[in-house]
Amino acid sequence: MLYVDNLLKYDGTGIPTVRTFTLAGCTSGTIYDFRVAAISSAGHSVQSPHLARICSRRPYPPAQPTLKSSTLRDVEIQWLPPVDTGGMPISGYKVQKSNNDNFFFSPVQCLKDGIY
């Protein structure tokens, strides 16, 4: 038996090998609580501890960029991906720069495989 926000969503009838569940149509940013109970001819188990999960929220920020290399004409930075993607795969990054420490950031064209 699977409960989502204390409502029975799947009762396990006839399919004891199914041990996955996908909540389709969830609302982005909404927290859902999941818990499961096992079913046998002797009855139902106690419910599992709950799992609180947010439906595809914004990812955490990447790690602070670090200098990979620098020449008189180029600066190359690198960063680690976010520790939490918010439930969705990362599809890209937006790089911005600021000139002269004025903290006015603007997007930059990124070089990928030698091409802007």
Q: How does this model look, in words?
A:
- With 116 residues, the chain is mostly beta strands.
- The chain is 0% helix and 29% strand.
- The protein contains no helices and 10 strands.
- Strands 2-1-3-6 form a 4-stranded antiparallel β-sheet, with no helix packed on it. A two-stranded antiparallel ribbon has the order 4-5.
Which secondary structure elements does this structure contain, and how are they paired or packed?
Blueprint (H helix, E strand, L loop, with lengths): L1 E3 L2 E4 L20 E6 L2 E2 L2 E2 L6 E4 L11 E5 L4 E4 L17 E2 L8 E2 L9
Antiparallel strand pairs: 1-2, 1-3, 3-6, 4-5, 7-8, 9-10
Give a brief rundown of this model.
The chain is mostly beta strands and 116 residues long.
Features of this protein?
116 residues; mainly beta; four-stranded antiparallel β-sheet; two-stranded antiparallel sheet; 10 strands
- Helical content band: under 10%
Poorly predicted sequence stretches spanning 5 or more consecutive residues: none
Count of alpha/pi helices: 0
| Computed Rg | 23 Å
Form type: elongated
Q: Report the sheet-strand fraction.
A: 25-35%
| Helical/strand content category | mainly beta
The pLDDT mean sits at: 83
Spatial arrangement of strands, main beta sheet: 2-1-3-6
State the end-to-end distance: 53 Å
Annotation, overall tally of beta strands: 10
Instruction: Give me the strand/helix succession.
Output: EEEEEEEEEE
Q: How is the biggest beta sheet arranged? A: 4 strands, antiparallel
